[in-house]
Design goal:
This protein has two helices and four strands. It has helices at about 45-55, 80-90, and strands at about 15-25, 35-40, 60-70, 95. Residues about 1-10 have low confidence and may be disordered.
Length: about 100
């Protein structure tokens, strides 16, 4: 009787929750605002594209996205806990740091 091997080739059925860290600019010449964007997506390319679209819809002219990763657990602290919940529900959550 063969057992299913657990290896890195297994694929996930559900989209992953990504966190993207960067800086966004509302006006040309501004210093920019530190941001975290949390969203569900099937891959990192889609996550970046959806994050940039959401930032544009929020009135940002441009963004420098520095880091991208997937969350392996549920954040406990706010505002990330609420943003994670929103991402699971299909929202693109933008956290601004003033």
């Amino acid at each position: 009787m063969a057992a299913n091997a657990d290896n890195d080739n297994n694929t996930l059925d559900d989209p992953m929750v990504f966190i993207i860290i960067g800086k966004a600019y509302e006006r040309e010449g501004d210093e920019g605002i530190d941001i975290h964007v949390m969203l569900r997506a099937p891959d990192d390319d889609t996550a970046v594209r959806e994050a940039l679209n959401a930032l544009s819809e929020e009135g940002f002219l441009e963004a420098d996205l520095d880091q991208i990763g997937t969350l392996t657990g549920v954040p406990e602290d706010e505002p990330h806990a609420s943003a994670y919940k929103g991402a699971l529900e299909g929202e693109v959550a933008i956290i601004r740091f003033a």
